[in-house]
Amino acid sequence: MVKKSRNPEKTRAHILEVAFGEIYRKGFQGVSIDAIVNETSVTKGAFFHYFPTKQELGYAIVDEILNDVILERWITPLKAYKNPINGILSRYKKIIETAEDADLPFGCPLNNLIQEMSPVDPIFKEKLRTVISLWIDKNEEYIKKAQELGYLKKDVDTRQLAEFIVMTQEASYGLTKTVGDKTFLWSSYHSLKKYLAALSV
Amino acid sequence: MVKKSRNPEKTRAHILEVAFGEIYRKGFQGVSIDAIVNETSVTKGAFFHYFPTKQELGYAIVDEILNDVILERWITPLKAYKNPINGILSRYKKIIETAEDADLPFGCPLNNLIQEMSPVDPIFKEKLRTVISLWIDKNEEYIKKAQELGYLKKDVDTRQLAEFIVMTQEASYGLTKTVGDKTFLWSSYHSLKKYLAALSV
After folding, report:
1. Partner residue opposite A184 with nearest CB, options B27, B128, B163
2. How many angstroms separate the CA of residue A63 from the nearest CA in chain B?
3. Residues B110, A132, A123, A38: what is their CA dihedral angle, to the nearest 10 degrees?
4. What is the pLDDT of residues B136-169, one digit of tens each?
5. Positions in chain B whose pLDDT score sits under 50
6. Which ipTM score applies to this complex?
7. Which of chain A's residues have a Cβ under 8 Å away from the Cβ of B107?
């Protein structure tokens, strides 16, 4: 019999947070429900009450955690900058500076799920595509603003640039997994900085 | 009893090629030895004669297939170009043009293994790092040549540019897995072309 939690929302969020960390370090297919349950404070029965399948848990991580993490890390802080191009670079720099060394071998949680799950699960693929599209859309909004304010050359294709920025950022985390230090992150940052300078007025 | 092959080298290459395709489509951890054996013309006994463990099979794919595929696709053709920068762009364009639609949802086989196996297997990580380093080294040789020949600005950091080119190319394949068409590949190509133009004399 499943012990009823007095705060089901909090319990659900606790399971999601623990599962997010386990999947980040071991991969979605590489981690078992037992391993996740062991790291939580709930019973296996309670776990299945919230997430009847591992798939449903995975989808909830994309919809409820990754989406917010991407916006909070990369997008929301941009509104504080007069020139959004400076904002994009400052955020990237800050994120690299504050990245924990212990996390570097594990890359980006969004990129990891894209690489692992998109080819084998169409629902994952669609949900992950939605997060990437949102990330690109929001970057494009700020890039357009930079163009309207006269910071960016008029002939810059704002969609292409937004896509390139997101690809650059994901790529630097992806290759970091082979080295486990910040070499590729800084290399990518400095190249993007030069590229954006070439496109700026 | 294992039936002796009359051409062990050919049999080994056949197993590697089949396994490469299966792992490309299903992931290393997602594919079973039985599934690979079923796609080959050898018995399970013969398979284990050549590859006693799935790990050894995976390492051989990195050392013997991925290394050559990367050099053949991206590097060897560069020697035909007077200006290596044009060569890098022409190859990238050609590779995108000739990419099979059916392969797009599966991304790049090297990037896939990096994302999946680097965090969980230090031997894979080291072998994959070696392939990436070689790819960057060879790009840098051609970038240096372009600089010596006066095609590229003297103040370009050749290592940083080589890293950025490889990251850009891997990234475009990585995000392509969420859409399954060539949007991100072309977007990345056109952005890289503009960036290289800005760095050229």
Report:
1. B163
2. 15
3. 80
4. 999 999 999 999 999 999 999 999 999 999 999 9
5. 1-2
6. 0.90
7. 115, 119
